[in-house]
Amino acid sequence: MSQPFDLCPDHPEPTKAKTTAPASLKKKRKVGESSTNTASVQHLRPGLVLLKGFVKPEDQVEIVRTCRQLGIGPGGFYRPNFKNGAKMKLWMMCLGKNWDPTTGFYGPTRPCDGAQVPAIPELGLHQDKDESGRSINQGLPIISISLGDTAEFLFGDTRDKDRATKINLESGDVLILGGRSRLLFHGISHVKPNTAPTWLKEETGLRPGRINLTFRQY
To answer: Which domains occur in the chain, in start order?
Structure first.
């Protein structure tokens, strides 16, 4: 049995009394690091909205800790397989329903190990179209929260990366894809090392890399 994937391997597990960030967290932020107190709204195109710095620092810390606890538990983080059997680079965990990247199907358990999906408390340019027809036809949005290192995000009307628009998704950013932008081709071109906020790494012991939380209605 493989060891659980721990997002914060060098950090002690938070006690029940330390489930929220300390009041001194704001003082720990270095001058020049992005503050989430003044989030800006960027309308990139109809239905595609970027909320810069929307998630407050203390909430980012709490989300990382929650993901860590879920990830090391039953049905936690695992590396999905490609159709040829090779494993993907990313570690994934689903809540509510499992999404199988090889089939595009949703279900209550993971086919790879039969694990029950916990209840809700390298990809190229792609479309998110495995949800129900009603969800897609109504343009119900996909909401993505970025934590950790900055990622370069691409989006466009085709799979052509050279013609895609590029933006940076930083820790605390929220991206909404809905309406006319619901089926945009999109993806991460690369993650920029050592760009996570210092205070987030100090408070959580987060590994290098990026956490992406995606919310969608099946």
So the answer is: 38-55+122-218 (2.60.120.590)
